[in-house]
Amino acid sequence: MYRSEEAWRSVDEYFIAALAPEDEALVEARGSAGAAGLPDHEVAANQGKLLSILCQMIGARRVLEIGTLAGYSTIWLGRAVEAEGHVTTLEVDPAAASLARDNIARAGLAGRVEVVEGRAVDSLRRLVAQGVEPYDVVFIDADKGDNPTYLDLALRLVRVGGVIVADNVVRNGDVTDASSDDERVVGTRALIEAMSSNDRLTATALQTVGRKGWDGFAIALVVS
Ligand code: SAH
Ligand code: DHB
Ligand code: MG
Fold first, then answer.
1. Which atom of ligand 2 lies at the shortest distance from residue 142's CA?
2. Does the pTM of the predicted model rise above 0.90?
3. Protein residues whose CB sits closer than 6 Å to any atom of ligand 1
4. CATH 3.40.50.150: does it fit domain 5-222?
5. What is the pLDDT of residues 126-151, one digit of tens each?
6. Domain boundaries in the chain?
7. Three-class SS string for the chain?
8. Which residue, judged by its Cα, is nearest atom 11 of ligand 2?
């Protein structure tokens, strides 16, 4: 039964306090985007912890993130890959990239995280052209209209057995609107369709409620 956004928030706060507490570096990173006049679009702490556990479950050492903002999710990912691991994170906004570098350095992760400034499509194509070592996990969380392109490029950069997660696939239920002309909805529906029809992937998606309202994420395992 539907209760209220306030109840969702309390449950998130309970789970976060018990299972995904934030240290000072995460608290600062979370507050920093809003303080700098950027949107507070970072994942909730319990979702950051989920990303981190997913990495640990498959022993991820190389993670690719599309959409850095202030580096909040990046810190969860950077911690999960441990000292020998590496996170490449792509951000188009120079102010966000610079803020992220500060937050990542404050978290002690500068040595294992590279913030690549520029349009993600360009950066991804460059990584493909460079023939970089495959990634274990890709987290897609940038402009939603380009989600299908990001999935295509991610598939050229991820190893078999790797995992691709895409954030914000529900958007208050808008995702079910097949006639939407909102490019974020169109892009997300195309992403879900592509995950469904691609033989290399087995995928699912979950709705979430909580601190971030009603949203959700899709997760795909690269099977071949
Ligand atoms: N992953 C972050 C939140 C990212 S918000 C976290 O959970 O903490 C989405 C980010 O994607 C924003 O910072 C935005 O500037 C960036 N972005 C939007 N369009 C982009 C593009 N074309 N290329 C790279 N980054 C982009
Ligand atoms: C939006 C983007 C995000 O990555 C997010 O977590 C929440 C909202 C947005 O574009 O509105
Ligand atoms: Mg997001």
1. 4
2. yes
3. 41-43, 67-69, 72-73, 90-93, 96, 119-120, 141-143
4. yes
5. 999 999 999 999 999 999 999 999 99
6. 5-222
7. CCCCHHHHHHHHHHHHHHHCCCCHHHHHHHHHHHHCCCCCCCCCHHHHHHHHHHHHHCCCCEEEEECCCCCHHHHHHHHHCCCCCEEEEEECCHHHHHHHHHHHHHCCCCCCEEEEECCHHHHHHHHHHHCCCCEEEEEECCCHHHHHHHHHHHHCCEEEEEEEEEECCCCCCHHHCCCCCCHHHHHHHHHHHHHHHCCCEEEEEEEECCCCCCEEEEEEEECC
8. 41
